[in-house]
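Worked problem 6 (solution included).
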Amino acid sequence: MKKIKNKKVIPLTLCIALAVLIIAGAIYLLSKGNDSMTLVAPTATVTPNPAASDKTDMETEVEPEKEALLSKNAYPKINTLMESYFAATLSGDKTAFNNVISNPDSIDFDQLSRKFEYILDYEDINCYTAKGINGIDLIVYVTYGLKLPSIDTAAPSIDEYYIYYDSNNEPKIYLGPLKEDTAAYINEVRSSEEVTALITSVSHRLSQAIESDSGLKDFYSSFQLTDDTSDSENTNVSSDSSTTE
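Solution. The predicted structure is:
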């Protein structure tokens, strides 16, 4: 897949100081999933057929294989959309968001530019899609390698997005509040075996990357320390699990 690059080079010390502005995707989404899940994915069960109770083993019907929930890079337009979105976040060009998100006017561009200013590159972008609640929209889990200044190893990361199709049948990232049934459905998909396995896989690769690169380890340690301090100062503040990041 394509790389999305930002040509800025920032000293590692400054990058670490701003670690709180950058989310370590795999760990964040994994912890978010564990904290906010109130639903579990349904499991397929076979209802016994009384009329077939006398069948021999040879006559027993074989249950069809369950269809996969996630499809990897199955929608070229979705891959293009996500690449365009990441490119827009790095460019800081407000007009670049017009064709990729539902409501560009809702974005705080000052905050956005601060958050993404020190990201150099998005590498190896892959999109894992699941059908949305109406069978038309999509839930997308995007995995990528996050390149940071003065750190050799890209940090494996994963983000979750809800995609809808506009009046011109073009996909866009939805930003805004979700209906209760849509939020519940997203939680259900996120807690499914396939998505959990994907998140865990990215989390495992991130842990390996951290252990193999001292620069990334220092960065993540600083992020974790800042994040823990922030949590302790906001113990009475609860997050709204009805929206996606």
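Discussion: The chain has a mean pLDDT of 73.
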